[in-house]
Amino acid sequence: MKATYGFRATITARPGRGDELIDLLLSATADGLGANQNCVVYLVGRSASNRDVVYVTEGWTTREAHPVCG
Fold first, then answer.
1. Given strand 39-46, what is the order of strands in its sheet?
2. Nearest to 44, CA basis, from 53, 35, 61
3. Quick one: which of 10, 59, 62, 65 has the fewest CB in 10 Å?
4. 39: helix, coil or strand?
5. What is the pTM of this model?
6. What CATH topology corresponds to 5-60?
């Protein structure tokens, strides 16, 4: 499967709440993204220098398949 639409975001959690934000974002894989065949990649990472800065990268088969855009 090929990703033709991508989405990338940098999110800064409230001070000291980066772990909670990561947990929330990863729960999306159990509730829908993981089961969505149009989601080719879903990566959640964090800054090495600031644990409250979180990065999300998504790859979708099409722009219309993305839940926010479609």
1. 5-12, 53-60, 39-46
2. 53
3. 10
4. strand
5. 0.81
6. Alpha-Beta Plaits (3.30.70)
- CA atoms of 46 and 51, how far apart (whole Å): 6
Cα gap 12→49, rounded to integer Å = 12
Angle, CA of 33, 3 and 21, to the nearest 5°: 35
Q: 30 is written with which tokens?
A: 């159990």
- pLDDT level of residue 9 (50, 70, 90 thresholds): very high
- Cβ atoms 67, 19 nearer than 8 A: no
The letter for the amino acid at 23 is: D
pLDDT digits (tens, 9 = 90+) for 48-64: 999 999 999 999 998 88
